[in-house]
Specification:
This protein is an all-beta fold. The chain has no helices and eleven strands.
Length: 110
């Protein structure tokens, strides 16, 4: 089971840190992907991180602004989002091993 949290309302240029906490998995040997879905748009992958944290990937839209990381001791993956833009407004989901978190809403006002 995955639990995403950390969303909220922030002004353009602000920052938020999302968390994705895993429970019920036998170990941390899984990659995590963050997706987002904006109103009226398809869900899109934003960033992912390998099980060890040694490999990461970002879509071009968020490169240089978002940072994904994980703390396996806490079974948690983070998505640090800086320099947020109104177009980052979306429900953000984390997924791994076929499980999806419930989503957390990020709203960026202009």
């Amino acid at each position: 089971q995955l639990q995403a949290s950390g969303g909220g309302l922030v002004q353009s240029g602000g920052s938020l840190r999302l968390s994705c906490v895993a429970s019920g998995f036998q170990d941390n040997d899984y990659a995590i992907v963050w997706f987002r879905q904006a109103p009226g748009r398809y869900r899109e992958g934003v960033s992912c991180i390998s099980s060890s944290g040694g490999s990461t990937y970002y879509i071009d839209d968020v490169k240089g602004r978002f940072t994904i990381s994980r703390d396996n001791a806490k079974n948690t993956v983070y998505l640090q989002m800086n320099s947020l833009k109104p177009e980052d407004t979306a429900v953000y989901y984390c997924t791994g091993l076929g499980s999806w978190g419930q989503g957390t809403l990020v709203t960026v006002s202009s």
